Amino acid sequence: MDATRYLIRGFRARLPIRYLLDSCEELYGDTGWSTRRAQDALVEVLQGRKDLDSYCRSFLRVILTEIDLCPSGRAELSEELVALAAQACSLSGTASDGTNAEVAEAAYEFELDGVEHDAYVFVSSAMSDVHLRVWDAGLFLFECILSKQLDISSKRVVEIGAGAGLNLVALHFAGARSTMLTDRNATAIDNLGRVIERNSASSYACAKVLDLEEDDARRASDFQDADVLIGAGKLDEYRSLSKDPALVKSVVRCYGLFLSADESKNRYGYLAFTVRSSEMVDLLYSELRARGLKYADITRAVEERRIPYLEYCRTSRTKASSEIKLIRIDAS
């Protein structure tokens, strides 16, 4: 049952296909994905879709390949799943690495106080659409918010680089008074509007363009009523695409402006980030000190298996050398 739930949740959350199957196998054994229960559950999910989007087609192509490689003695194969996979291979379009980008709904299931909930986001099937995907630091921040590691109850929260908007639901359950989701990408803002509507959050949330390169006066007006600023990202090597040190400096400048915009308020911020380069982390801390900001590492282990796709982040071979940190940022 655990393998089935893990597989279906990962599928609905649109985790990278190969990593989903590999991590399911690592956690539950070599038949984890191919039990009849898991196959029947997949068929039930897929049959509810009028059209198979590129992610579903790519997933089924991989499944069909796995079926071809199945050694004798594995669990009985579902004829319905084989038929769906064959249909996917006959449809136009290419596998996920070369597919045309599609933005589709993904449901993130989580349990809170013994009750299951859903957070709905819209994510892109293209890895290049960085503004419309959920990354591991964002997932980590989502869990930290749910476990109430952040002091945001009754606070007005602004999230920079909100992207797919996953944290909207977590902030609501954690008791945030209101939420402003911001991003510098106009497409992401349109997407965030859809996320707010899909989660029935228009009474307490809004989406707004916030360019980190804008002049200080304009950004200060965006922060006027806010109490807490949050964000999540990754600190990669200098050579990595779009991981320009200037972006780190802009983010720190944004936190500095927020904390100094209204000295009568007890404002503070939180930043979660994936560490893949010690140089970039050193740059972050150096910039914070240069702006007279205090920071404290408040990273704590999140509750195991509350949301299974967090385990994907930890077990993925490509992320094995990474760690995720959460810091609190205050004015001096």
- Strand count: 9
Tally of DSSP helical segments: 12
Shape: elongated
Describe the sheet with the most strands: 7 strands, mixed
Strand order of the largest sheet: 5-4-3-6-7-9-8
Query: End-to-end distance, in Å?
Result: 51 Å
Order of SSEs, N→C? HHHHHEEHEHEHEHEHEHEHE
SS strand fraction: 15-25%
What oligomeric arrangement do these chains adopt? single chain
Helical content stands at 40-55%
Structural class of the helix and strand makeup?
alpha/beta
Rounded Rg: 21 Å
Give the overall average pLDDT. Answer: 76
Please describe the structure with a list of short key phrases separated by commas or semicolons:
332 residues; alpha/beta; seven-stranded mixed beta sheet; two-stranded antiparallel sheet; 12 helices; 41% helix; elongated
Structural write-up:
- This protein has 332 residues and is an alpha/beta fold.
- It has helices spanning 2-12, 17-28, 36-47, 54-69, 79-90, 136-146, 167-173, 186-198, 216-222, 245-260, 278-290, 309-315, and strands at 103-112, 115-124, 156-160, 178-183, 205-209, 228-235, 268-275, 293-297, 323-331.
- The strands form 2 sheets. It has a 7-stranded mixed β-sheet with strand order 5-4-3-6-7-9-8, sandwiched between helices. A two-stranded antiparallel ribbon has the order 1-2.
- Strand 6, helix 10 and strand 7 form a beta-alpha-beta unit.
- Helix 1 (2-12) packs antiparallel against helix 2 and helix 1 runs parallel beside helix 3 (36-47).
- The longest helix has 16 residues, at 54-69.
- The chain is elongated.
- The relative contact order is 0.11.
- The model is unreliable at 92-100, 237-242 and 304-321 (pLDDT under 50).
